[in-house]
């Protein structure tokens, strides 16, 4: 199933990390025509003052000037290699080290400086949609990995039912019916199925007796 690409960016917020020099006015004007507002975080001691916790992936786009060394500190997901919001690299000097820094930030698109208005939409389109596609792909991979781990529980549950007298097909069918009745996926249901049967029996209130000489019993 192909994902739907985002083409309308109205309501977005561009956070542009750069030192103001006049060239950015073209970027700001073009973004405004696309319905995207622009903010310039203050840079103190070489670090952009960004409230990372407040960033929203469905609204914010981070433009990072590659000519500013280590101006942005954001955490990249180790599995997907994605930042919390789409990142578009602003490229001036095409030094490999600066391009690498932008890639390590999770940039999914680039825009050359000085910015030309005609290039902004393409860069925005690519940056946001590549971010969304990679995030969706990572979610699918994580789901598949969880299901792969859960298959162990399914196999163990089937074996348990076989030991109780069912054949393989009957055991699997029973688990599938019960998981559907419980409105759970098969893997999760089997994990809970095994967990319940792994609990020790409740012996509270029960007594056993040892017969003593004379026929009397002593409770233990």
UniProtKB/TrEMBL annotation:
It comes from the Bacteria. Transmembrane segments: none annotated. Residues 197-220 are annotated as: Disordered. Residues 134-194 form the ANTAR domain. Signal peptide: none annotated. Gene3D superfamilies: 3.40.50.2300, Winged helix-like DNA-binding domain superfamily/Winged helix DNA-binding domain (1.10.10.10). GO terms for molecular function: RNA binding. Residues 204-220 have a biased composition (Polar residues). InterPro entries: ANTAR, CheY-like_superfamily, WH-like_DNA-bd_sf. This is ANTAR domain-containing protein.
